[in-house]
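hey so u asked for the seq, here:
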Amino acid sequence: MPADPPSHAVTQSNGAGIALRVAAMACMAVLAALVKACAERGAPVLEIVFFRNAFAFVPVLLYVSRTTGFSVLKTNRLGGHATRAAVGLVGMVCGFTAVSMLPLTESTALSFASPLFMTALSALILKEVVGVHRWAAVAIGFVGVLIMVRPDPGHMANLGTAFALLGALGAAGAMIAIREIGRTEPGPTIVFYFTLAGMLLGLASLPFGGWTIPDLTTLAMLIGAGLIGGTGQLFLTEALRRAPVAVVAPFDYSQLIWAGIIGYLVWDEIPRAATIAGALVVAGSGVYILYRETRRLRRGA
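ran it, structure tokens below
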């Protein structure tokens, strides 16, 4: 007789997976807005990183307790987790810095370059075979990035743009690390150790005068960033439990819509035409890369 399903098993539903993915992207847009607002109120980036990760433990640990149980946190691959955390935290710090320096919609759009970097890194680091179709999609995607950053010397030197692209590169490197460590480690384990590393990194900056004492409003926003960031991470996890990645991943680009709405309502930002045009090119390239990757995996299966 087959074993009874675990208590945390869920019914597969594409509709539920898509809804959770869109909700996750809304959380990530709100997180970016909170990061930008806290930075404008004088909170240093590493202090924001600490709160983002420390208070993310509230939803993360609640999720672990109600699904897999705390035994899932045991690991024999601390080195792999350390590598994933180091690369991911570089991406987080650069991404938060970019958010603090650029309009919300522009920093979000530039983060969409991450799948392009991931495809290139998978060929260079994992020695995966990347066919001509995916390389062409990467090339077209980077044309979209150039449209967004406007290839004139003055704008290309923009520090915020550089941090945004470094953040996208760090996120891509983190996904490559997750591909490797994910062969033996469950998702909640990877999330837990990354969150722990982020909290420790932020805390380590305290003795060096890298913090300010936030007022009550800023403190509430910092705590909110942690709670909403952790919740968004869990929505991402749940989306992948309920529907295939090929179904839900294209909805990552809905984050640009949320960012545009928040940016307009809070900062009176109106996205540049070049930002929207470039983002559409990058998004189209990313979806095509996902399509080709899915076909490759199905053929392998």
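DSSP finds 14 helices and no strands in the chain. Residues 1-9 have pLDDT under 50 and may be disordered.
lmk if thats what u needed
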